[in-house]
Amino acid sequence: MSARHTFHPHGVIPAVLLPFFDDLSIDESSYRKHLRDVASVKGISAITTNAHSTEVASCTFDEQRRVLEITQDEVGAQLPIVNGIYADGSMEAQRLAKMAHDGGASALLVFPSAIYTFGQKPDMAVEHFKRIAEVTDLPLIAFQYTLAGGQGYPLSTLIKMIEAVPTLAAIKDWCGNAQLADRQIRALQTRTPQVNVLSTHSAWLFSSLVLGCNGLLSGSGSVIADLQAQLFEAVQGKDLARAQNIHNRIYQTAEVFYADPFVDMHNRMKEALVLLGKIPRAVVRPPLTKISDAEIQRIKQALIAAGLMS
To answer: Which homologous superfamily does the CATH classification assign to the domain defined by 11-237?
Structure first.
């Protein structure tokens, strides 16, 4: 059932994974089960799809549309859906945004263009978001990458984007710098209207949340959404002892999910779901490749240490 929720991006937003068959086609049945499993977690505010966690870079336009259709069918009546807009060109980003708008998404997560690695000007980012806002009035979430890689937006650019595009309602913060993360929270969440900072510093989630983020958006929520929801609640309630205890469990998974090479993070989460009996296989699409048996054993030990399996 399709539904559109009025949604200002905030709170705990897991980014789900996308199961595949051995022939690399989408395993729709397993994806539906995974969606229902994550959506059943108490304390989450939305679900994200068509993002890094669903291997969006290897999905065609039609596959992305189908993934959104399935997501709407399974959980659209229950939760807002954040749909990723992953495109290097603004025209393709606009086409994806129109598809997601028509498909019932409640917010759009806009990835930065890879062309920024060659150099970035503020008017480029402004133009990209303006093009998207021409075809949808949905709230937009800017995915804030690290500045060192060239795809992150300097704070001054973020301000110009917000001033030029009123529907820019939040950032998914992966700046990788605690000082800048703090600065962004102070600059954006004190604005009127408020622009929320959603942490995706999942390798150091506890530390990032205590700075005052109004939410989190995380691929590891595909595995530990319940722990993330509990952590966010404890931090918001200023219950430090409880937050530290939950963090100690999350730490076990973060150490294996976000180990080097970082690119394998979602491969590892798929293996974790297989170990937990929640999906049947951990197939990933090229150029991603399956991780080693030794690493799978490390993930198993981490799940045990986190109290997620016996």
So the answer is: Aldolase class I (3.20.20.70)
